[in-house]
Amino acid sequence: MATGLSDVELAAGAKLMARLDAFAAFTDEPGRLTRLFLSDAHRRAAQAFIAWCGEAGLNARVDPAGNVVARYEGKSAGAPALMLGSHIDTVRDAGRYDGNYGALAALAVVEALAAEGERLDHAVEIVAFGDEEGVRYRTTLTGSRALAGTYSKDALNQKDSGGVLMRDALKAFGGDPERAGAIRAQNVAAFVEAHIEQDPVLEAEGLPLGIVTAINGATRLEVGVDGMAGHAGATPMALRRDALTAAAEMALAIEARARAEPNLVATVGRLEVWPGATNVIPGHVQFSIDLRAPDDSRRAVALADLTQRIEAVAASRGVRATLAKTHEADAFVCDSRIVAGLAKAVGSLGVPPRLLPSGAGHDTMIMGGLCPAGMLFVRCKGGVSHNPLESITLEDCAFGLAALTRFVRDFHIL
Ligand SMILES: [Zn+2]
Predict the structure, then answer these.
(1) Which of 116, 156, 404, 412, CA to CA, is 20 to 30 A from 264?
(2) Is 291 in contact with 302 (CB distance < 8 Å)?
(3) What is the dihedral of CA 387, 357, 348, 369, to 10 degrees?
(4) What spacing in Å lies between the alpha carbon of 97 and ligand 1's midpoint?
(5) Quick check: bond before 275 cis, omega within 30?
(6) Which residues are placed with Cβ below 5 angstroms of ligand 1, an ion?
């Protein structure tokens, strides 16, 4: 059992785990967890969060963008704040830890301080973002964008599948669409988000916690391969210009390139074949590439390599390949002082601090535009998320909360 955890930390972890279970009851669909942005379940979850904050002596509220926010003052009123939090919206048929863990862990940190009447040099602000998963509307991260001062009012004109404008849903939720774009957070010294890992790296290495160094940047490409369609019976193998076998060789080359470099990931996730008939040699193939890395310059080098390899395969097989970039997002590098602080807190629990990149996007990368930001990962079973099978252990839950709490107590204004 948890050698590095105090009894108080273990008990706090158990309370957090029980609260995560209770919180999962706030769902829009009976029998499974679905809590979309500004839905009835989201409203009930926000109210429960506010009530729990009240029990800890915190005056929490829904802000104009639909986030739940609260502030625990430091030794002197108005001191700069360390902000903690994550999101409480979910995908459809979700697990109970993605987002919720970090939001409720933030509250649990303040509860630990409040229980001791402990005031720090800095204030602690907690936030439960409402809009991270981007399921209901075609925008996402509007809660963190509002606090970071990068809110786009266009989001308010988005409609959900039932024709409900975000503007109207936000008003009904208790937000204020007119002010959502004007609530850039003030006097925030840093932002830290605890989150389940969503990858199986920590599990594979037998570690409960990880410290995020960067959130991967991504490039998406659409590749068209033009060969020559022909009769599957009459065309000799040597005379074919098969677009599909060329694309297959390209996909293998992409995989091989990504495998050759740590932390680089590349995926061919969609492939379509024309004309798509049993007795016709494929004349055209269209496929996607999703390339991610924690370092933008390495992603750029990998992209150049992939392009070269695809062209080499095309040349050797007598087909033509066309590449078009469809998406590009830079990596977010976590603040090195926060990384060091989290590593120290994790190490103090007797857990080797493992630094790793995040393959998935998070509110942290948006908050990083406002202030120094970082993340703590908690091991999850099999790396499975966005799925009811999402699972963490009680001990890991406690380790994550204890590390976050120790980090907060030890935090010095950057
Ligand atoms: Zn999440």
Answers:
(1) 404
(2) yes
(3) -100
(4) 8
(5) yes
(6) 98-99
